[in-house]
Write a structure and sequence with these properties.
Elements: E1 3-7, E2 13-16, E3 33-35, H1 44-49, H2 53-78, H3 81-113, H4 119-142, H5 148-151, H6 154-184, H7 202-209, E4 213-218, E5 223-226, H8 228-234, H9 238-241, H10 255-268, E6 279-284, E7 290-301, E8 307-316, H11 318-332, H12 336-340
Amino acid sequence: MTARWQCTICGYIHTGAAPPDVCPVCGADRTKFIPLPAERQGGLSAALAVFKLHPVAAHFPGGLIPTAWLFLGLHAVYRDPGLEVAAFWLVMLATAVVPVSLGSGLRDWQKHFGGERAAIFFRKIALALTLLTLGLAATVLRYGQPGLLAAGGWPGWLYLFCLAGMLGCVVLLGHYGAILVSRQGGARAVPRPAPAGGIDAWPGLIVAQAPDAILAADAGGVIRLWNRGAERIFGVPAAQAIGRSLDLIIPESLRQRHWQGWGKVMSSGVSRYGEAELLRVPALRGDGSRFSAEFSIVMLKDEDGGIAGVAAILRDVTVQWEREKQLREQLAAGGGPAAAATP
């Protein structure tokens, strides 16, 4: 029988016949899980409670634009003007819904992803704006001109070009939307009120909810801990990261050097990147983009003093690195400290 279990340390919710042996978010053992009451099904209030405006609005252009092209194809075969008119109305309806989809998408971006400045979000925004522009252009060209396509000439071709561009936009928007859905799915920690347990529960809560990425890997380099900050910074849910190699976040060109250093640290049990020194290296997000990461590490030892793994506390310092680069370039060009400090 399937049930729902909540971690009292970090709030992660697990679905299954029994709680997991270890919480994939904060590392708490199964004794920290409590059963949740079964969710009520049915009813208008239950449907409204889980209603998501953005996916609904985004599906309108995704369904209407391909259908408009279907009607245009049938119009080309049967020469029925009613089919062409129906296609035009579908284009206008899809265009009218784009502002709703764009606005709700921007809201969800801030709410669910913290306004994360990843390339995939800017691509979706650019595609939505392009879709709206092409839709408005197509509407202006076709409105009040039923014989636009039959008359031929550049206005008709421009109209078809706009519709082709709209079709490409909705295809790419659907593609990127599916990527984001997969990022949000899985074992994503759910914000919950602070559980009972007082101060004893604080360490787990800090690890689970810290804005910085906190992750840990065993001696073999397999990820065993992945907190909410890691989900946000790397764009990879805990369920997809835990059990994977650290290659998940290391650019391919740096992996050989990383594993050479890793082997030395595992053998010696000593690393200079701990209490006093931070390491800054390029890191890899789930969508393939790179960013500058700064982190310190903690050596994890077993009862016999052997190295059991390594934990890291990491943050995205791309903006800081870019500023420092600009300052160095200005100084190298002879601008002097005063010029370098000028925005």
